[in-house]
Amino acid sequence: MPTYENLPDFLDDWEHLTREQKRHFRAAVRKFVADLKTGGNFRASLRVMPMHANSGVWEMTWEGNNGRATFSYGPEIRPGERHVMIMAVPGRGARLYVPQCCRELKMRRPCHLLRLVCAMISDPPG
Length: 126
What we know:
The protein is an alpha+beta fold and 126 residues long. It has a single domain, classed as YaeB-like fold (2-Layer Sandwich), CATH 3.30.2310.20. The chain has helices at residues 8-16, 19-37, 100-104, 112-121, and strands at residues 3-6, 49-50, 58-62, 67-74, 83-88.
């Protein structure tokens, strides 16, 4: 069974999802975990793919692109098991804030570590 951790942006996003969005996310996660257990060949309906502008960051979508989550893989906690760090799960139509320093690097969404650095040197969204 893969291990996971919910990063702060995910927890904030989660609070703003509707009950139905949460239900769809949980269903997608069950499929994701089942695919990880069988070797990580993800079913096409999850559309799991690396984000082009953010090395090491992956995204998956479901429900006709109405659901979306970003994640990365962290160091194994249990030997032989993937560790998934869930970064964000913005609700439908949510706009992702990308700090200026990340836009200059042509990143569509900053990785969680870079986001911390950017937050220290950028103005918050207003």
